């Protein structure tokens, strides 16, 4: 194996100066999940509106409820993202410390092997694991300190914005279309379109964009229907 590959493998375990868990602010799975979550929340409110009997007061209550709900859940999701990020680095620190204090080299290599993804491990020889062990054993203590990093704050902000800002395009028709039934149809089309676009973008990474878009719409609408049926 070349040195670049060794460093990539090592970075999955050790915590570096700039953080090893974030190559982007949010990875594709996080982005798709937060977008879908935000859309489900706001469409639960719009979908529960009875357009046959809805007056301006009912629409106003729905809009305030949708905005307040996604604001609250955006904050909650952001806090959970931050907490999860910090917890992940603490677990990485514990893994490295376990390697450094292992009774012998064999036990240290076993700890490293258990921390690696199952699909990666078969590609590594005993010599590869030993090079990783030596790298981790020689890491200075300051490299293992768990600090709040810019990626944590940026990721938390991105999570909040995705959940909260997705409220606006879905509720916008109710602000500009006087007929409640027409506004609801337009709102649903926007919500479904955003679901499909999100799934399509995610599916491009897996080689099945159309399937990804359709699955995202099917899952999203099913979750909206369940939430409405259960009074969510």
Element layout with pairings:
Layout (H helix, E strand, L loop, with lengths): L2 H9 L16 H20 L8 H45 L4 H11 L10 H12 L12 H16 L1 H10 L3 H27 L2 H21 L3
Helix pairs in contact: 1-5, 2-3, 2-6, 2-8, 2-9, 3-4, 3-6, 3-7, 4-5, 7-8, 8-9
Percent of residues in beta strands?
under 5%
Assembly type of the chains comes to single chain
Distance between the termini: 53 Å
Secondary structure class reads mainly alpha
Count of individual helical segments: 9
Overall geometry comes to: elongated
Overall pLDDT, averaged?
Answer: 84
Fraction of residues in H or I helices? over 70%
Radius of gyration, Cα only, in angstroms?
23 Å
Structure description:
There is one protein chain. Residues 1-23 have low confidence and may be disordered. The longest helix has 45 residues, at 56-100. The protein has helices at residues 3-11, 28-47, 56-100, 105-115, 126-137, 150-165, 167-176, 180-206, 209-229. The N and C termini lie far apart (53 Å). It has one domain (3-13, 27-229). It is elongated and about 75 Å long. Helix content is 74%, strand content 0%. The chain is mainly alpha-helical. Helix 3 runs antiparallel to helix 7. It has nine helices and no strands.
